[in-house]
Amino acid sequence: MLDYQGNQIPGGKYSFKDKAIPTDRWCLKADYAESSMAHNTGVARLWNDHFRDVLVDGEYRCRTEAQQTVIDNGYNYDVRTAIDGFPIVVFYRQTYNDSLICLGQYNFNNDKSSHEVYGFENVPEFDNSVVGLNAKLKKLKEDYSQLDPSIEGNSDKMKKMAFEYSKTEAEIKVLTSALKISSTALEEDKKSIDENNISSDSKSEFTPCCSV
Q: pLDDT for 72-118, tens place per residue?
Protein backbone atom coordinates (compact mmCIF):
# COMPACT_ATOMS: atom_id res chain seq x y z
CA MET A 1 0.00 0.00 0.00
CA LEU A 2 1.45 3.34 -1.13
CA ASP A 3 0.37 6.88 -0.30
CA TYR A 4 -0.09 9.62 -2.92
CA GLN A 5 3.64 10.37 -2.75
CA GLY A 6 4.59 6.76 -3.39
CA ASN A 7 5.65 6.07 0.21
CA GLN A 8 4.93 2.70 1.84
CA ILE A 9 2.07 2.83 4.38
CA PRO A 10 3.06 0.86 7.53
CA GLY A 11 0.89 -2.22 7.99
CA GLY A 12 -1.03 -1.48 4.81
CA LYS A 13 -3.74 0.41 6.71
CA TYR A 14 -4.69 3.96 5.84
CA SER A 15 -6.63 6.61 7.76
CA PHE A 16 -8.38 8.71 5.11
CA LYS A 17 -9.14 11.67 7.38
CA ASP A 18 -8.55 12.99 10.88
CA LYS A 19 -9.75 10.51 13.55
CA ALA A 20 -10.73 7.87 10.95
CA ILE A 21 -9.71 4.37 12.05
CA PRO A 22 -6.89 3.07 9.80
CA THR A 23 -8.16 0.24 7.62
CA ASP A 24 -7.32 -1.65 4.45
CA ARG A 25 -10.83 -1.52 2.94
CA TRP A 26 -12.72 1.39 1.42
CA CYS A 27 -15.53 1.98 -1.03
CA LEU A 28 -15.12 4.22 -4.08
CA LYS A 29 -18.79 4.91 -4.82
CA ALA A 30 -19.83 6.23 -8.22
CA ASP A 31 -23.34 7.70 -8.10
CA TYR A 32 -23.98 7.45 -11.85
CA ALA A 33 -27.54 6.07 -11.54
CA GLU A 34 -29.06 8.88 -9.48
CA SER A 35 -28.50 12.49 -8.59
CA SER A 36 -27.88 12.48 -4.83
CA MET A 37 -24.08 12.32 -5.36
CA ALA A 38 -22.34 13.06 -2.04
CA HIS A 39 -25.64 13.70 -0.22
CA ASN A 40 -26.05 10.02 0.73
CA THR A 41 -22.71 10.01 2.53
CA GLY A 42 -23.55 13.36 4.13
CA VAL A 43 -26.80 11.98 5.54
CA ALA A 44 -24.92 8.96 6.92
CA ARG A 45 -22.48 11.30 8.66
CA LEU A 46 -25.34 13.33 10.15
CA TRP A 47 -27.03 10.13 11.34
CA ASN A 48 -23.86 8.92 13.08
CA ASP A 49 -23.11 12.24 14.76
CA HIS A 50 -26.71 12.85 15.86
CA PHE A 51 -27.21 9.48 17.52
CA ARG A 52 -23.75 9.57 19.08
CA ASP A 53 -24.34 12.97 20.68
CA VAL A 54 -28.11 13.14 21.32
CA LEU A 55 -29.23 13.20 24.96
CA VAL A 56 -32.30 11.19 25.95
CA ASP A 57 -33.45 11.83 29.54
CA GLY A 58 -29.98 13.22 30.27
CA GLU A 59 -28.17 10.12 28.99
CA TYR A 60 -26.38 9.11 25.79
CA ARG A 61 -28.67 6.16 25.22
CA CYS A 62 -28.16 5.94 21.48
CA ARG A 63 -24.42 5.31 21.64
CA THR A 64 -23.27 1.76 21.06
CA GLU A 65 -21.25 0.20 23.85
CA ALA A 66 -18.17 0.37 21.61
CA GLN A 67 -18.67 4.10 21.07
CA GLN A 68 -19.08 4.77 24.78
CA THR A 69 -16.00 2.70 25.60
CA VAL A 70 -13.70 4.61 23.23
CA ILE A 71 -15.05 7.97 24.44
CA ASP A 72 -14.53 6.98 28.08
CA ASN A 73 -10.97 5.80 27.36
CA GLY A 74 -9.91 8.72 25.17
CA TYR A 75 -9.34 6.55 22.08
CA ASN A 76 -7.86 8.62 19.24
CA TYR A 77 -10.17 7.26 16.57
CA ASP A 78 -13.88 7.49 15.81
CA VAL A 79 -16.04 4.35 16.19
CA ARG A 80 -19.14 4.74 14.04
CA THR A 81 -22.64 3.43 13.42
CA ALA A 82 -22.79 4.73 9.83
CA ILE A 83 -20.19 5.31 7.13
CA ASP A 84 -17.97 8.35 6.82
CA GLY A 85 -16.61 9.72 3.56
CA PHE A 86 -16.24 12.65 1.20
CA PRO A 87 -16.37 13.40 -2.55
CA ILE A 88 -13.22 12.99 -4.64
CA VAL A 89 -12.19 13.03 -8.29
CA VAL A 90 -10.50 9.77 -9.36
CA PHE A 91 -7.65 9.52 -11.86
CA TYR A 92 -5.64 6.50 -12.89
CA ARG A 93 -2.63 5.48 -14.95
CA GLN A 94 -1.16 2.07 -15.69
CA THR A 95 2.47 3.09 -15.16
CA TYR A 96 4.15 5.99 -13.38
CA ASN A 97 5.16 7.60 -16.71
CA ASP A 98 1.68 7.40 -18.30
CA SER A 99 -0.62 10.41 -18.49
CA LEU A 100 -3.41 10.57 -15.90
CA ILE A 101 -6.89 9.61 -17.10
CA CYS A 102 -9.91 11.02 -15.28
CA LEU A 103 -12.47 8.41 -14.25
CA GLY A 104 -14.91 10.90 -12.73
CA GLN A 105 -16.39 12.04 -9.42
CA TYR A 106 -16.66 9.42 -6.68
CA ASN A 107 -17.32 9.26 -2.95
CA PHE A 108 -14.40 7.95 -0.89
CA ASN A 109 -16.28 6.06 1.85
CA ASN A 110 -15.78 3.57 4.64
CA ASP A 111 -16.54 0.07 3.48
CA LYS A 112 -19.33 -1.72 5.34
CA SER A 113 -17.07 -4.74 5.83
CA SER A 114 -14.43 -2.74 7.76
CA HIS A 115 -15.47 -4.19 11.13
CA GLU A 116 -13.04 -2.11 13.19
CA VAL A 117 -14.72 1.10 11.97
CA TYR A 118 -18.02 0.07 13.57
CA GLY A 119 -16.61 -1.36 16.81
CA PHE A 120 -16.94 -5.05 16.00
CA GLU A 121 -13.23 -5.81 16.42
CA ASN A 122 -9.84 -4.35 17.43
CA VAL A 123 -11.30 -1.70 19.75
CA PRO A 124 -9.10 -1.13 22.84
CA GLU A 125 -10.71 -2.07 26.18
CA PHE A 126 -13.81 -3.41 24.44
CA ASP A 127 -14.95 -6.97 23.78
CA ASN A 128 -17.78 -7.19 21.28
CA SER A 129 -18.58 -10.72 22.43
CA VAL A 130 -19.88 -9.19 25.67
CA VAL A 131 -22.43 -7.22 23.65
CA GLY A 132 -23.50 -10.38 21.88
CA LEU A 133 -23.79 -12.20 25.20
CA ASN A 134 -25.95 -9.42 26.65
CA ALA A 135 -28.21 -9.65 23.61
CA LYS A 136 -28.53 -13.42 24.03
CA LEU A 137 -29.33 -12.99 27.70
CA LYS A 138 -32.04 -10.44 26.93
CA LYS A 139 -33.61 -12.72 24.32
CA LEU A 140 -33.35 -15.71 26.63
CA LYS A 141 -35.09 -13.85 29.45
CA GLU A 142 -37.88 -12.87 27.07
CA ASP A 143 -38.33 -16.51 26.04
CA TYR A 144 -38.20 -17.66 29.66
CA SER A 145 -40.89 -15.21 30.69
CA GLN A 146 -43.34 -17.14 28.55
CA LEU A 147 -42.71 -20.44 30.38
CA ASP A 148 -43.99 -21.46 33.81
CA PRO A 149 -41.27 -23.66 35.40
CA SER A 150 -43.86 -25.28 37.65
CA ILE A 151 -45.52 -26.91 34.63
CA GLU A 152 -44.18 -30.37 33.86
CA GLY A 153 -41.65 -30.33 31.01
CA ASN A 154 -40.96 -26.59 31.06
CA SER A 155 -37.83 -26.95 33.20
CA ASP A 156 -36.18 -29.09 30.51
CA LYS A 157 -37.28 -26.66 27.81
CA MET A 158 -35.64 -23.80 29.70
CA LYS A 159 -32.36 -25.70 30.01
CA LYS A 160 -32.42 -26.46 26.29
CA MET A 161 -32.95 -22.76 25.54
CA ALA A 162 -29.91 -21.79 27.60
CA PHE A 163 -27.76 -24.32 25.78
CA GLU A 164 -29.07 -23.24 22.38
CA TYR A 165 -28.03 -19.63 23.04
CA SER A 166 -24.55 -20.61 24.28
CA LYS A 167 -21.44 -21.16 22.16
CA THR A 168 -18.82 -21.61 24.89
CA GLU A 169 -18.55 -22.85 28.46
CA ALA A 170 -18.03 -19.24 29.57
CA GLU A 171 -21.34 -18.20 27.97
CA ILE A 172 -23.13 -21.16 29.55
CA LYS A 173 -21.79 -20.08 32.94
CA VAL A 174 -22.93 -16.46 32.52
CA LEU A 175 -26.36 -17.31 31.14
CA THR A 176 -27.16 -20.02 33.66
CA SER A 177 -25.94 -17.88 36.55
CA ALA A 178 -28.08 -14.92 35.48
CA LEU A 179 -31.11 -17.15 35.05
CA LYS A 180 -30.43 -19.11 38.27
CA ILE A 181 -30.08 -22.47 36.51
CA SER A 182 -27.50 -25.06 37.51
CA SER A 183 -24.76 -25.09 34.87
CA THR A 184 -23.78 -28.54 36.12
CA ALA A 185 -27.25 -29.84 35.44
CA LEU A 186 -27.17 -28.16 32.06
CA GLU A 187 -23.92 -29.90 31.14
CA GLU A 188 -25.39 -33.23 32.26
CA ASP A 189 -28.28 -32.63 29.85
CA LYS A 190 -25.92 -31.85 26.94
CA LYS A 191 -26.09 -35.32 25.49
CA SER A 192 -29.87 -35.47 25.46
CA ILE A 193 -30.02 -31.94 24.07
CA ASP A 194 -27.76 -32.95 21.17
CA GLU A 195 -29.92 -35.98 20.54
CA ASN A 196 -32.92 -33.66 20.24
CA ASN A 197 -31.10 -31.77 17.47
CA ILE A 198 -30.67 -28.57 19.48
CA SER A 199 -27.72 -26.94 17.73
CA SER A 200 -25.42 -24.55 19.57
CA ASP A 201 -24.69 -22.88 16.21
CA SER A 202 -28.29 -21.95 15.42
CA LYS A 203 -28.08 -18.39 16.62
CA SER A 204 -28.90 -15.15 14.87
CA GLU A 205 -26.30 -12.44 14.35
CA PHE A 206 -26.46 -9.42 16.66
CA THR A 207 -25.91 -5.84 15.57
CA PRO A 208 -25.62 -3.20 18.29
CA CYS A 209 -28.24 -0.48 18.06
CA CYS A 210 -29.56 2.30 20.22
CA SER A 211 -32.18 1.63 22.87
CA VAL A 212 -34.41 4.54 23.76
A: 989 989 999 999 999 999 998 888 889 999 998 899 999 999 989 99
What does the DSSP assignment read for 97-125?
A: TSPPEEEEEEEEEE-TT-GGGGTSSS-TT
Q: Check whether residue 102 and residue 153 sit in a common domain.
A: no
Split into its structural domains, the chain has a count of 2
Provide DSSP, 137-196: HHHHHHHHTT--TTSTTHHHHHHHHHHHT-SSHHHHHHHHHHTT--HHHHHHTHHHHHHT
One domain, residues 98 and 142: no
Same domain? For 114 and 145 the reply is no
At CB < 8 A and 24+ separation, what contacts does 34-37 make?
A: 37/87, 37/105, 37/107
Instruction: Answer yes or no: is 201 within a domain.
Output: no
Chain segment 133-190, per-residue pLDDT in tens: 666 666 666 666 666 656 666 666 666 666 665 556 666 666 666 555 544 544 554 4
Q: Each residue of 69-101: b (16+ CB within 10 Å) or e? A: bbeeeebebbbbbbbbbebeeeeeeeeeeeeee
Residues 138 and 103 in one domain: no
Question: 89 and 29 in one domain?
Answer: yes
Full residue range of the structural domain in which residue 162 is found: 128-195
